[in-house]
Amino acid sequence: MKRFLLTILVLVLVSVLTVSPGGCRDADHGDDNPALIVYEGLVIPASQDVISVQNIGDGVTGGDPDFCKPEQPDEWHFVLSQVVPRDAAPTAMTALFVNAGTVTVPRTDLSGPEHRGTAHYTLKGQHLDDTLVDGYAVRPATLQSHGPFVLSNAPCIQIPQYLLAISSSAGGSVTAPGEGSFTYDEGTVVALEATAEEGYRFVKWVGGPIDGVTSPATSITMQGDYSVTANFAEEEVPPAQYTLSISSTSGGSVTAPGEGSFTYDEGAVVALEATADEGYEFVKWVGGPVDGVTSPSTTITMQGDYSVTATFGEEEIPPVQYSLTVSSTAGGSVTAPGEGSFTYDEGTVVALEATAEEGYRFVKWAGEPIDGATNPQISITMQGDYSVTATFAEEVIPPVQYTLSISSSSGGSVTTPGEGTFTYDEGKVVNLVAEPSEGYRFVKWAGEPIDGATNPQISITMQGDYSVTATFVEEEIPPVQYSLTVSSSAGGSVTTPGEGSFTYDEGTVVALEATAEEGYRFVKWVGGPIDGVTSPATPARGVSPMMRARWLPSRPQQMRATSS
Question: Which residue, among 85, 90, 7, 83, has the nearest Cα to 48 in the 3D structure?
Answer without folding.
Answer: 7
